[in-house]
Specification:
This protein is an alpha+beta fold and 225 residues long. The protein is 60% helix and 10% strand. It has a four-stranded mixed beta sheet, with helices on one face. The protein is elongated.
Length: 225
């Protein structure tokens, strides 16, 4: 077995490859090979093999991490779906509480109107859906504003938001351009920030109170404060 190992080493095989092939401990092989001198060509070949092995190992590691990430994402999605099955999404109280929490985080609270701004169309579609379903929002009273970067076309962005939010193009009145972004390129997925203004400060006040009082009630009940 030793002669075989020595012969493989003299041919330029790496210690790791010999270890795997002959199933001999690396420590034993290192002792056997200490007096073997490899040629420059063999050393270059070993270095090239090591680099190739490293590249392959990194690719495998990336694939493994991606697979694990997808697995964790699917587990999270399944857990979320399980919770949703136990919620009546047609219950108006649940919808109002959900909207109240969204408004606490994203809604306009310093002006006398009910308004929200976001770059995520899903957030705004959710807002509009609940406002229509619960508060019977009149589309004609909605005013939409866009905050865009310097290289974005206002007409194209108006059409994008009007289509995705299913609102008339005439609802989009005002566009502001951030001049600080002049000269920098905008990522294709970013469509600016869209503000939806609905007037009616009474809804804003109700949502803010609902969100805050719900938080207060839960914390007092569970923390004993």
């Amino acid at each position: 077995m030793k002669d075989t190992a020595l012969n493989l080493r003299r041919q330029g095989f790496s210690i790791g490859k010999i270890e795997r092939r002959l199933e001999i401990p690396r420590s034993t092989l290192s002792g056997w090979f200490k007096n073997i001198k490899l040629t420059s060509r063999q050393k270059r070949k070993l270095l090239a093999n090591q680099k190739n092995a490293l590249v392959k190992a990194r690719k495998k590691a990336i694939l493994w991490h991606n697979e694990q990430r997808e697995k964790r994402l699917q587990e999270a999605k399944n857990a979320a779906l399980k919770i949703l099955k136990n919620i009546d999404i047609n219950n108006q109280n649940i919808l109002e509480v959900a909207l109240a929490f969204l408004y606490l985080g994203e809604g306009v609270k310093r002006s006398l109107e009910t308004a929200i701004g976001n770059s995520d169309p899903l957030i705004l579609k959710f807002f509009l859906t609940i406002m229509r379903k619960v508060y019977k929002l009149d589309i004609k009273k909605i005013r939409c504003e866009l905050n865009l970067r310097a290289d974005q076309d206002p007409k194209k962005m108006k059409k994008f938001w009007a289509k995705i939010l299913k609102l008339p193009l005439s609802n989009f009145k005002y566009v502001s351009i951030d001049k600080r972004t002049t000269g920098s390129k905008t990522y294709p997925y970013y469509k600016g920030v869209c503000y939806i203004r609905c007037g009616n400060v009474a809804i804003q006040r109700k949502l803010v109170y609902l969100g805050n009082l719900f938080c207060q009630k839960i914390t007092e009940k569970n923390m004993g404060s």
